[in-house]
Every structure is written in structure tokens, then in C-alpha cells.
Amino acid sequence: MLCTSLWGQHKNELTAELDGRSIKITQKLTYVNQSSEGLSVLYFNDWNHAYSNKNTALAKRFAEEFNRSLHLAKDRERGFTNIKSIVAEDYAGLDWKRLGNRDIIAVTMNEALQPNDSIQLFFTYTVQLPDTKFTAYGYTPGLGYNLKNWYLTPAVYDGEWKLYDNINLDDLYTGVTETTINLTYPDRLHLSSNFNGSSATKFPGGQFIQLSGKNRKSCEIILTTIDRFTKHRVGNVIVSTDLESNKYDEIYQGISISKIVHYLEENLGEYPHENLLVSEFDYNRSPLYGINQLPSFIRPYEEQFQFEMKFLKTTIRSYLQETLYLNPRTERWVNDAIAYYLMIKYVEDHYPNQKLAGKLSKIWGIRGFHLAQMDFNEQYAMFSMLSARKNIDQALTTRNDSLIKFNEKIANGYKAGLGMSYLSEYLGEKKIDSSITAFYKNFKLKPKVSASDFRKTIEQFSDKDIDWFFEEYVATDKKIDFKIDKIQKTEDSISLTIKNKRGTNVPISLFGLQNDSVVSQYWFTDIDTTKTVTIPRNGEDRMVLNYDQKIPEFNQRNNWKTLNGFFSSNKKLKFQFFKDTEDPYYNQVFYVPIANFNIYDGITPGMRIYNKTFLERPFQYDISPTYSFLERTLVGGASFRYRKYHNKTGLYVSNYSISGSTSHFQVNSRFSTLTPAVSFGWRPNDLLSNRRQTLLFRYRNVFRSIDDNIADEIDTDPDYGVMNVRFTDVDNNILNYKSWFLDAQHSSDFTKLVFEMEYRKLFQSNRQLNFRLFAGKFLRNKTESDFFSFALDRPTDYMFDLAYLGRSESSGIYSQQVIISEGGFKSKLDNPFANDWIVTTNASTNIWRWVEAYGDLGFIKSKGTDARFVYDSGVRLNLVTDYFELYFPVYSNNGWEIGQDDYGQRIRFVVTISPKILVGLFTRKWF
Is the Cβ–Cβ distance between 404 and 927 less than 8 Å? Predict the structure, then answer.
């Protein structure tokens, strides 16, 4: 039976019994049709079910971020929802179904629910909580519970259903409800919640509490074995918090908490709920990234500042999520803009001299870095620009589930806050502050609010055209980049030509400086390409665009011009130890000690000289001279590269480079390479995809000087050149890795064509299969030696591409290093070379965890001989794929290898010692 609702919102009544990993729930939900249409099917969010199997949206999202935890989880660690019944108020059973493998329940009405009518639904179900190791939500045996989005909630209908899966973004979009939860939970646990608690009682073996919330989205509960939370009453709000700050006195913490709550009430508005939960758990889910992520024992900030920034960041996030009900998946940028603007403003108001490096900025050896001189708020521009310089920045209006992780966690939020500061500087701080408080006052707790409401509110307080902010800055990923192209001066005026290098039509500020003091400031608009402006002269000796760096410009190195002549305008060179942030007023040259290793040169210490800052720049050079103590000579390398980004997708990058290196491949035998190259990169429309395609053209020149004692062993010309063209297609997915390349090489003595394909799949059973195919053919071959031939197990590497520790070794530990290239065999077989063609396959599958069985087989053929069938097999310890592996041969063409006397010399290993490659192992999930 349907009835007209007396409530303006949904009403939710739950009885929940928490026991171990499960929660038994009976739920009475009064659903109000707030739309203008009849609804035959109602949808409900069931986000706990996202942990149920390996094919949910959450599991797929984890795979994109190289996280296999949910895929490899044991059944007892997973979370799921077991729905027993759904009935209507007349006790008639209702048909329901789960939408495929999604976190959405569809309930079919016996008759359509008309506009403004309501229906009471009764749900009976059990929630099995996931282990907290996946997303930190769920159950940790012996420690407690973190519960959020743990019960069924109504999905939002606004002309169409907004059905979103849980992908660990904390952006549940659900209807506003009045909720009461009667919760029974285990004894000896302490409960904290964002809801109000009442009727708390204890009974043998358990506890009971009634939690209630009006105009709320969802109930968050934290249960701990230790009572960590303290309560602070600030005006009408009770703040419950357990933020850690061991060195900051609790009394002063209370003062800081009161200070921040009053700041938010003044700059945002009064918090409409009685209880505000500010937890260490929520902070860790969304920390303030940057230097304050350092371990506490080297944290550079004063305890008060550290505590206040943690508390401010977490409080603003909870404040806005609990009161402004925008669509968090599609319009999150509004909350980000308000939150980070208020954080920037808080530091400006209360800590105007705070440096990004904190106390480290005063330490000798560190204070000379530009990073140490940067203000704390400058980090927002730096981190947002890191994304832009890599050409992976995305518009603020991009859906939350389409953002690259670095943008979702850091860059887009920072860009949104910077945009509000930019707008504040342009319009005037009072106008922006007033628009934020008006927006909050008018739309808090409203069930329907959108980004357009935010725009209209700002426009009401603006006396200037700000279409550019929403249409250029917010809605696109266009870069902002202006420069002073020309400058002329007279006794009483200055004429400047300002050039818009990117065509992004936004306002730009111009400052006049005299001895580093600001003596004039102007704003200019409508600069599509170039614009010449004339300003009065007030003693300026330098003109600077965006001097206060309120505008997030792509490149600030071209923002200033001196009025004291041409030579004065040249930037000074600044030599600096170690990498630094970008200083727009210097040409920075960095240097850092390095050490490389191979057995012929030994450990080769040296100095790396380069210009790469933390932000990527188009032209980069890297010169690394090192000294070989064994050979008593200089070795090392150098590279010069120019990178040009094009579009976000399709052909997105071109690289032009020339590089050279020199080292030793044998005692007193040197090789040197010189390689000009050009490459082009493609990426798909989905920026979350890890697929990349590359076309490389290079000409490798190799020069060798050979010791007289081994000259007879070298049966090729010492110097040669090889033209190399390679197309590579890689889809680097942790569940289904696929790659292939087609490679052509041409020199005066040979022409060859190579195809390689690699595939790795992690099956539902958690068994992983690794498969590789290699095929190579000489189209012409005038060589007489095997130096340029295909190899089964240890290529000669005549291109000097492979990171051999001892490339000429045929015995000893260094000869046991294996690099999976060409044939990819692990056993050392007789006659391993082929100067006609080769086809091999390499496969492995796991036996237990990282213990795998491998097998290789193939055919090789040299000129004038018949094709030979070759094979080997053994056990692989796949400790870190491609980085550290061990191979133990068992059986091959050599026979039963494991029983032979020299077995220790047959074991092979893969090892990666390059810091750059190892760092990529940990940063790949972010970009």
C-alpha cells in the first residue's frame, strides 16, 4: 500500500547486531519519491558488496593501480552482503536483483510509486565485513572496526538514476535521510560516530547504543579497544577527535580545535549538526600530501602548526561532506575549491611566514635550496603543476572515477583551491569570502545542490566578468602561460607587449618592482594572442607577471623583464647540490655524487650534472662523468633530450634526443656509443589505462678500443653503426599484462627483423601464467661470427642496451645473470647462437605464492645447418617480477641438471640495481 509521505526526506530505521565480522541488520526504510515521475524500480547502494569477489569495480580499480590484494584475498577476508528478504509495508514480498556484479540493488515495486508518495520497505540482511587491509574500512581482528557505507542506502534519482560503484574514492552519492540505528556491539569496545548517541547501556557480553542523525547521508562508526577519542564542546558543536600529536599538549590542542572551529564558522558558516567526528583514520584516508608526510621524527614543523593543519584538513572535509550534498562523483571540485581555499587563507592569516620546509629552511646546507625558501602555500601550485608538466592534468569537471590517481588524490584538489585564490585576488578577497558564506548558508543540507548554484552565487558577488574561470579554468585542462615579449620605456611611461603563449584567455597580473619591493600592480584581460599596454612609470627597475604566484602558470621562467638594459636581464647561473624545485629567476644546474658498477670498471664514483627539477621541463640534459679506479680512466655518459607534448590522447608526445656513453666490456677494452634518436608516443582516450604505444627511430654508433691481449678473440670490426626502428605496444596491467614489439635493424653487414610478445594473466584461481614468444629472422647476414647472432640465453648485446654487470663473462657469478631477452632461456646450452632464424617460447606458472615452474622451448637455425629443437625447465622464485628473480634449472637438453656437479654455477638470477627503475616500481600507481 502506498501513502502520502509526511516527511520531506527518506526515513531510515535500523537494528544492527555486530558480532565478529558480521552485522545482522533489519532495516525499515521509508522511501519518499521526491521526483516528478512515477518510479517502478528503486535502487539502493550496497557498497560493502564491493569486496565480494575479484570482478567488482573495486577489484578492477585496484588492478589498475597495481594492487593485487583484493584479487588474492582469502574468502574469509572478503566483504559481502547476504540479503534474505525485501518486503513492502503490506508484507508483500518484492522482487529484487543485484545489477550484475555491481554494488547496486534493484527493487521492483508491485505498483509504481507516484510523485510525493512514500513506501515502507523492510530489509533483512547480513553484512560480512571486509578485512581493513584493502581500504582501511571493515574489521581488524583484535583491534576494532572502521565502518562507513556499511548498510543499504537509497540511490539518487534526479531525472535519471545515479548509480555509482564503490571504487575506494569515498564518494557515495545517496539520498538524504533521517536515520536511527539501534546498535548492539561487543563488550570492551569504545564507540565514536558522526551521529548522535543516546541510550548507551551495557549488558553481559555486549553493549547497546542508539545513534541518530537528521539530514544525513551515512553513519560512520569507529570502534576501538582503547578509548582514543576526546570530546571538545565548541559553541553548539561537540567535536570528537583522536588526531595524534604526542608532543602537543592536550590543553593547547583544545585551544587549537576551538580556534579552527570558530574559523570555519566565520568563513563558512555554522555546522548544523550536533556532533563533528574528526579522526586520525579520516586524515590518513585523505592526508595533506607534501613534506608533512615525512615520518614524525624528522617532521619539520612546529607541533602546533602540524596539529592545526591536520585538524583543519580533516575537519573541513568532514564539514563539507556532512552538509553540502553535491554529487561527489561529478562535482567534487566545488568542495575541493572551498576546502583548499580556506586552508590557503588560514595559513595566510595565521602563519604568514610559514615555510614549506619548516624548521629545515634554517639549517645550513638546506637553506640554500629554493624549496627551503618557498612559502608553505606554494606547494599547492607545485604539486598541481607536476601533473600539468607531465601532460596528465585533467579538467576539474572530470568525473572522480576518470581521474588519474595523482590528480584524484592531489593535483585537482590543489588546482581547485588555487583557482579560488586566483579569483579572490582578481575580484577582491571580500567578494569571494562573501560568496562562499552565502553559498553555504543557502545550500547546506539541501537535497539538491549543484555546481551551477555555486557559479551563480559567485556571479552575484562579482562586479567583473568571470566566465573565464568556469569555462576556461574549471571546465578545461588548458594551460596558463604568459610572457613579456617586448618592453620600452620613456621618462614617464612603460610600454609592454604581453604574449599569451597558450591562448587561454584569463586575466594576468603585472607587478612593477623597485629593489624587490612592489611599487605598482595591474590586471589585464582579453589577451588572446598579444596585447601592448602602457603604464605610468613609478621608479620600477623590473616588470614581472604573476609576481605573487597567485596564478597557476605553466611556466614562470619567462615572466620578467628588467628595465636596466639587455645584459641585466640575463638570468644568473645557480649551481646547486641535489635536485630542487624550480626557481624562475635562475638557470639552475644541479650536481650530485653517483656511483655505478660493473666488474671491469669496479665501483665508479662520479658527479651527475643535470637541469631536471621536481617539475618536468621540455629540454633536459644529464651529464654523468665517473672515474674507473680499475681502469684508471674516465667513463660515464651524457644525454640531451627535448620533449614536446601534443594532445592528452592519441599522439601525445614526441622525444628528440642524443645520448652517449662509454665504459669497459673487458679488461682494458672500452666501448663507446653515440645515439641520435626520435620517438613518438600514443596513449588511449581513457587516461586511466596503462596502455602505451611507442615508435622509436635511432641510429646506434658503437666504437670499441680493444686490448691487444684479446684482439684475436674479437672477430668483428671494432666500430659499427646500426639503424634501429621499433614499434612497441604495452598494456601494463597487473591482472592481464600484454606487450609486443616489432623491431628492425639494419647495418652494413646484416638486416634482421624481430617480433616479441609477452603475456601475463592472473586467473580467478590466483594461478598466474606468464608466456613469452620471441621470433627473429636475418633478412641478410654477411657476418662470420656470432657477435650479431640471435642467442638463446645470454645475448652478446652488441647494441649495449642491457644492464650486464659483467657482459663478457662466460663463467663465475656474473655470467649467471640473466636478462630475459632474445631466446629467454635460463639453461646454458651448447651452440646457443643462431645466424639465420630463431623461434622460442618461455612460460611459467606459480606453484605456491612466488614459487613458479618454468619451461622454455623453441627452434634455432644457423646457415648451412638443420634447425634444432631446444628446451629447458626448472623452478623460478619470482620475488619481484622483472626486478629480482632466481632460476633453478631442472631438466633441459643438457639432461637432468639438478644432479650435475656444477649445479651452483647453473643457477641464474635477475637483479635490478638502477635507482630510477626501482623508484618507478613504487610511483607507477600514481600516474
Answer: yes
